[in-house]
Every structure is written in structure tokens, then in C-alpha cells.
Amino acid sequence: GIPRVLNMYSLNPLFSAYFESLGVKPANLVYSDFTDSKLYKEGAKRGSIDPCFPSKVAIPHVHNLLFEKHEKSPLDYIFFPMIDDLPSPLQFTQGCRACPTVATTPEAVKAAFIKEGDLFAEKGVLFLDTFVNPSKNGLFKEQMFNQFRTILGLSREESDRAVEQGYLALDEFVNQTLRRKAREVLDRLEEEQRLGIVLLGRPYHNDPGINHDILEEFQKAGYPVFTLHSLPLDEDLLERLFGEEVEDGVIRSPLDICDAWKNSYSENTSHKIWGAKFTARHPNLVALELSSFKCGHDAPIYSVIEEIIEKSGTPYFSFKDIDENKPTGSFKIRVETIDYFLKRYQQDMRRKAEKEKLLNEQLAAFESGLRRQLTESEELEETGAVYAGR
């Protein structure tokens, strides 16, 4: 069993491929359901602390695995790793740590199910809250081998090979599937002069129960939504967006955020800031920031992200302090208001593009005429020189 929570939204291909390459059938990897009010209410009573909602909802997800999934098809293990750091595409950051609250949530979840009797033991399920560092290949191999060598009867070579398959699967999913498809969509937006929305959030904001279907509402309205992990990293695109700043020495590479944020030790925080920079530099993208209530890592960068976006004239919208409460009417009104604004913004963008196109055509025609006149003048001079020579 695997809880569908937190950083598993960005790293699950790594872990699922690890198990599958060792012979575990995909059908035997059982995930908890997506977050909804029913799942939350059924399992939330066990919590004794009050962190952010995305961490708090982890207890209901494990409850869902134990009391629903396990009843339908018995589970042997629940794998909920303590993820200390994250693989990062960014460069020149101080670190790539995970949020400490998120990283230690599996331990808090474990305590909730054993404080009044060991419910895992009663159900015959072993809870694995393995401490892992996926950004460090060698250390991660050691950690996974130590955890599963006895459980799965593995040799070090088998485990290491499975880890490599996990990294390959993660790369394939992010770079060959997500980013490639996103580039196709982005190119189409440019061709059709349409707008797309970049979600400036954290991995768990992909959960419809955490984002309260806000993203789905925007997609229904006709705006493709790009997550941070889907933003294309093609060299030609990065050169177009960041090339001038690299050439001027403002940043050392397109994946550098040191010009905007020096305290770059938190990977998901750094990724949000880079996503804001990307959005601010692309004319067909607008920013939508989601932030959960009590997110200590988001609070210091609210103004940073807003300034990055608004200084470029790019529209910026936010839903902050979202939690388990879902004011459907309020969200719907806000989405409709934003949609109305974006439709007008898109019309203005198209009119501006048409004017620029017309101006460029006129300039091209004028330049062509000048060149033709210059050529004719040179030909006349050559002809005159010939007659003078006679």
C-alpha cells in the first residue's frame, strides 16, 4: 500500500518502477484514493497535532489503506517513506531539501496508529517509513537495499539495478512524457495566441482534494494548466526566455534563481520561484499560485513571487491559505472573475500581436523597397560607368 500524498506526487514513478523491476506486479501496488471529504472525515479523528492540511490528510490516507483497501485485498506492507530531499533540475541552489514537516509526516502517521494499540500489527500489515535521500544516488541505493534486502530477499546488485530503473522511469515520465507534451501545448498556444496557466504550487497541489478542483475549473474554461514539473526545459526555449540574462551575467544558467532567491535550500520553494521566472518571461502564460494554510515555506516567498510576476506585466492570481474547507461558491465566483479578465487580456494580446504583425509586414515591405531602389541605383551607376568608358 502506498499513500497518495505529499511528495509521492512527484516521486512515485521512482518507487513504483523500483518495485516493478523486482517482480512486484503493478496490480499489487495499491494506492489510497484521491483526497475527498469522505476520506478525510473517516480518518481525521486519529490526528493529535494540527499541521498544514496536506500533511494532516496523510493519516486519513493510511486509514483508507488499512480499513478499505486492506479489507478488499489484503496488504502486506504500507510504504510511506520519509523523503529528506528531492532530485532537482535547478542549478546553483544551496540545497534540495524537502519540507521538514512533510519529511517527518510518516513518523507522525505511524504514531497515530500505534498510540492506543498497534493497529498495523492487528491488521497484519508492516508499516515502512524508510528514510530516503533520492537526490543522492549512492546513498539512496544504500537506503533502499537496507530496507528491502530481507523483505524481498534481494542482493545488493538486484536492488541497485532496481534503483537505476526507478531513476530511468522518473526521467522518462517527467522529461519524455510531461515536458514533451507540455512543449507541444505551449507551441500551440503561441501559434493560436491563447493563454495557459502555470500552477505555482507544491507537488501535493496536484491532488484534486487539496486544490479543491480549482485547476479542473480553469481547464474547463479552456486554459491548459502547466505544473512546475511539466514546464519544458528545451534549450531553444530556455535560450529565448533567459539567454539575454545569462549573456549579461545576471544569472549563470537558465536554471539559476540566485538573482531572485538566495536562501535556496528548499527544493519545492526554489522550484516555485523558478516557475515564476519562467512564467514572467513567456507572453502566453499567466501565474496561478496555490498555497495551503500553515505552509511555513510559502510565507517568506509570497512577495518574491508576486514581484517577479507583476514586474513583467504578467497577470498573477492566487488562492492562499486553502485547507480542508471547500467554499465552493466562493471558488466558483473567483474562477469566473479570473476567466472574464483573462478573456479580455487574451483579446488585447491578440490585437497587439496583429498590430505587431502588420507593422513587421510594413517594415519588411519598406525594407524590400529600399533594397530594390538601392539595387536599381547601383545598376544605373554601373551602366553609366560602362558608357563613360566607351
Keywords:
four-stranded parallel β-sheet; Rossmann fold; alpha/beta; two-stranded parallel ribbon; 2 domains; 390 residues
Tell me, rounded to a whole number, the average pLDDT: 92
Gross CATH architecture of the largest domain: 3-Layer(aba) Sandwich
Determine and state the CATH class of the largest domain. Answer: Alpha Beta
Residue share in helix = 55-70%
Q: Radius of gyration from the CA trace? A: 27 Å
Overall body shape: elongated
Determine the oligomeric state from the structure.
single chain
Q: How many individual β-strands?
A: 8
Count of helical segments? 14
CATH topology value of the largest domain: Rossmann fold
> Main sheet: which strands, in order across?
6-5-7-8
In whole angstroms, the N-to-C terminal distance is 98 Å
Largest sheet: 4 strands, parallel
**Topology order in helix (H) and strand (E) letters:** HHHHEEHHEEHHEHHEHHEHEH
How much of the sequence lies in strands comes to 5-15%
| Residue windows where pLDDT falls under 50 for at least 5 positions | none
* Category by helix and strand content: alpha/beta
Number of domain modules: 2
Fold blueprint:
Layout: H1 8-21, H2 37-43, H3 53-56, H4 58-72, E1 77-79, E2 82-83, H5 100-114, H6 119-123, E3 126-128, E4 131-132, H7 137-148, H8 156-192, E5 196-200, H9 208-211, H10 214-220, E6 225-226, H11 235-247, H12 267-281, E7 285-292, H13 302-310, E8 316-322, H14 328-389
Helix pairs in contact: 1-8, 2-4, 7-8, 12-13
